[in-house]
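User: Sequence recovery, please. Input:
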């Protein structure tokens, strides 16, 4: 049973930023509630920008996640990130992860920059202080 299912969307965003900060050693800015323009977390240094987007889609269909990812991907040409992270509470398979990577396109530096439920759970085991 996933411990992610009881999180609100805002709590899930916070969790994803905390994991990214722990894993990559960089700080991600957080923003208040409301339309975020496709940015749930941002790290900027000089003219380089990393964008983190989280999708709390546990219990939703994969097609719903695909549609949401497509809507977010349309914002990427305007955002022009150098690196893009997608975190989702949805359980992913290699095929599903590839489909999401294809939607995101060239803004995805590495297929590992897509984090599914199992990746997030593993990061919580690796960094137990995040959950505390």
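Assistant: Recovered sequence (132 residues):
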């Amino acid at each position: 049973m996933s411990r992610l299912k009881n999180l609100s969307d805002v709590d899930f965003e916070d969790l994803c930023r905390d994991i990214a900060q722990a894993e990559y050693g960089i700080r991600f800015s957080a923003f208040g509630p409301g339309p975020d323009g496709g940015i749930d977390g941002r790290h900027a240094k000089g003219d380089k920008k990393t964008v983190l987007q989280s999708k709390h889609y546990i219990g939703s269909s994969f097609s719903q996640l695909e549609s949401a990812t497509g809507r977010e991907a349309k914002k990427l040409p305007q955002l022009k990130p150098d690196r893009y992270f997608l975190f989702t509470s949805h359980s992913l398979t290699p095929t599903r992860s590839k489909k999401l990577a294809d939607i995101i396109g060239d803004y995805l530096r590495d297929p590992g920059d897509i984090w599914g439920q199992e990746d997030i759970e593993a990061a919580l085991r690796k960094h137990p202080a995040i959950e505390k």
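The mean pLDDT is 91.
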